[in-house]
User: What shape does this take?
Amino acid sequence: MGRAVFFDLDETLIEHTLSAAELVQQIQAAHAETLAGVPDAEFRAVLREKAAAIWGAMFEPTEPGVEPLVGAFRRTLEALGRDAGAARAMRDTFIELVLAGTRPHAGAKETLARLRAEGVATGIITNGYSYFQEMKIAHHGFAGLTDFVLVSEAAGAHKPDPKIFQIALERAGAVASEAWHVGDHLVNDIGGAERAGLAGVLYDPKGDRLPAADAALPEGARRPSFVIRELGDVLRFLGQPGFENTNSEPAC
Ligand SMILES: [Mg+2]
Assistant: This one.
């Protein structure tokens, strides 16, 4: 059993430059004819509701054979009384915008290569639909840079469920006490990893993701074992005395 470092994808290995609101605005602009007369706020609200519904049904798809994102746009258009035939084109626009609006974070690929050179097992643990997450991974050149990719749809569990971290440890041939998980989300990444016995490493490039020491944390969140400002910082402390995984949580 050796050491392992896992990484979250969105806002950790890759950075999103468009906000959710900007994405929706650009989809509206690209499909202005289909959506003519629909108030912006209504489109946003209905799309948010239909997208949340498909996320909730990920492990028991209600429309077998229908691509979930297409289904979300189709239901949105139906609810708005618009041509549902535009759903696939709208989904394509969404994917194009996301791919164009994301980029690898500084040092991401170099860090993965250096971990590999050090004999450390690496993996990506990401919440989402397999085809979409893997598309982002391939588009940004991360395919093959880690020992495995574990997407929550395929795992049957989303972070922070300890089950997905357990599957990752099995893939890496590692035990929790010798594993670190790097991510941006205090609940999904840090809370999940710490409860599974891994050391949660908060990637906080701007230093604004961790509430003050005396402030309450969101439900399900944990304080991270470590905080890093640059992805390459994991190499600085990995295996160094004083930086062991001292998480006392029993491994799941
Ligand atoms: Mg993230």
